[in-house]
Design brief:
Layout lengths: L3 H9 L4 E6 H7 L6 E5 L8 H13 L7 E6 L1 H13 L6 E5 L2 H7 L4 E6 L2 E8 L17 H5 L2 H11 L3 H9 L3 H4 L3 H24 L14 H10 L5 H15 L5 H10 L12 H8 L5 E2 L2 E9 L2 E8 L6
Parallel strand pairs: 1-2, 1-3, 3-4
Antiparallel strand pairs: 5-6, 7-8, 8-9
Helix pairs in contact: 3-4, 4-5, 5-10, 7-10, 7-12, 8-13, 11-12, 11-14, 12-13
Length: 322
């Protein structure tokens, strides 16, 4: 597999590179990236236009110009912010990503969506702009605890629900290992990289058909309408965990015969399956009403009817069964 240095040489030879780096990643791996750096404290609270302005202030202080190449190194928040900044700084500069979390590897860094949150609503402002390259190296996942790593698995499972492939065997692989054992043998590392690459292929195939999210690409929102609402209503769950519960709701709405397979896949990896009872239906529906996919009182909701059978249904919000 071509390394990031070779990719950077192909796309940015002779150009100034400035890296936008998650501060935790910099502490762990900073010596591997000998660039001028802008450090981010990556959190949903900091994924804002204020942070975008601060990054651009630092770029101006560094006298970055339109030929500067930005390299986003970190999780999905870092790649989203870097892509957004690159899209608007001096009307756009070239950029690339080195994702370091599972969520970023299989979803957030793929597809050219770069966004920030507004008033705690996710990705309300953003751009469509593809990076010059994305370099995925599962080695970065060694630094996570098993629990933290597995919180991102629902985004991988989402891809496999859409394609109809690999859900059961991938769940069995992850449930049968912890992080140490994932990297204990070359075979396990190859298997891990395989599942990451398969999830990426699903998203890339769909994005290639609909780059601006006006048609088939919307099926990638599977699990996200309810998942984002859960995130708005509580801080108890990670993005991946919330999406996992959203996947179950999407399967319930489609009377999916494979729903138990999905439930088992999530629960076997220590992930929540049911929306907790303390989250009221009223609060969840109020959060969903702020979804950017709402138009004329209806939403494009992604329903799971079976493995490999995912459809976009235009429906009133109150028609979604929670």
């Amino acid at each position: 597999m071509e390394g990031w240095r070779e990719m950077l040489e192909r796309h940015a030879a002779g150009r100034r590179v400035i890296a936008v780096v998650d501060d935790v990643v910099d502490r762990l791996y900073g010596s591997e990236f000998p660039f001028e750096k802008i450090l981010l404290h990556a959190s949903e609270e900091n994924k804002t236009l204020d942070t975008v302005a601060k990054v651009m202030d630092e770029l101006l202080a560094l006298r970055a110009d339109r030929d500067t190449f930005l390299l986003g190194i970190g999780g999905g928040i870092t790649t989203d912010l870097t892509g957004f900044v690159a899209s608007v700084f001096k009307r756009g500069v070239d950029f690339a990503f080195i994702p370091t979390t599972l969520l970023a590897m299989v979803d957030a860094s793929i597809g050219g969506k770069n966004g920030v949150n507004v008033r705690h609503l996710k990705n309300m402002v953003g751009t469509f702009n593809l990076p010059c390259f994305i370099h995925t190296d599962c080695r970065f996942l060694r630094s996570f605890s098993t629990r933290e790593l597995y919180k991102s698995l629902p985004e991988m499972f989402k891809a496999f629900l859409i394609s109809g492939n690999h859900l059961a065997e991938s769940a069995s692989f992850f449930a049968g290992n912890d992080v140490d054992s994932l990297f204990a043998t070359e075979e396990n590392i190859r298997q891990l990289q395989f599942y990451i690459q398969e999830a990426v292929r699903v998203k890339e195939r769909i994005v290639a058909q609909d780059g601006k999210d006006r048609g088939i690409r919307k099926i990638l929102n599977l699990g996200h309408t309810v998942g984002h609402a859960i995130e708005c209503c509580t801080d108890e769950f990670s993005h991946g965990e919330a999406v996992g519960m959203g996947l179950v709701v999407a399967a319930q709405n489609g009377s999916c015969p494979d729903i138990q397979l999905l439930r088992d896949a999530l629960s076997s990896c220590g992930l929540p399956v049911e929306i907790p009872s303390y989250l009221s239906e009223t609060a969840l529906r109020e959060a969903m009403a702020q979804d950017k996919k709402i138009a004329n009182g209806k939403i494009d909701y992604v329903v799971l009817y079976a493995l490999g059978d995912v459809r976009l249904v235009r429906m009133p919000l109150d028609a979604i069964q929670l």
